[in-house]
Amino acid sequence: MAAYLPLAVLVALLAATGASAHGYSQTPSPTPAPAAKCDKVMLKVEGVVYCQSCTHRNSWCLDGATPLPGAKVTVTCRDAKNRVMASRTPVADGNGYFLAEFDVAEKADYYKGDPAKACFVRLLASPDRKCDDLTNVNYGIEGAPLRHEGKRWSGKGHENENVVYAAGPLSFKPDTCAPRGHY
Question: Which residues contact 47 (CB under 8 A, 6 or more apart)?
C-alpha cells in the first residue's frame, strides 16, 4: 500500500502539469477584496419649506401650499454623547429648497453612529409676515427626522461615504385667513 502513495502523488502532479500546458490553472483565481467599510461620512441635508394654504391650516395637509423662498431652518446634529456637535442654518432658495452641508466626520462621532438618528431639522424663520406662524407638519417644531432616499454624490479627493438625507417637507402657516362661508 505504501508503494501506491508515491504513484498517486506522481499522477496528480502529471495531471496538474498537463492542465497547465493547455492554459488551465489549478491555482484559484484571487477573490475580490471586500469593499472597504467607510468610517467617515460627508453629510448633506435637504428639504423644502412651504407656506400652507388657508384651506388646510391647522392640519398636516400641504395641498395648495406654495414654496417659501428665504425661509430659514436649522439643522442640528448630535454627537455620540447626545450633545450638539454641529449645526447649520440654511436659507431656502426661490423654490423653497434648502441644503445644509456638513464637514467630514467619523460615523462613530454621530449619536448611535448614524447621522439619520443624530440629526434633525427645525423651522426657524419666515421672511413672509403673512405666513410666519410655525407648524409642526412633519415635526418642523419638534425636529423633523432625516430619511435616507438613496442619494449620494462623489467629489474629488473624497474617500468618504457621501450621503444626502432629506427632511420634511416643512411648513409655516398664515397668521390670518379669511373666514370661510357656511352654506
Answer: 73, 97, 98, 121, 144, 166, 167, 168, 169, 170
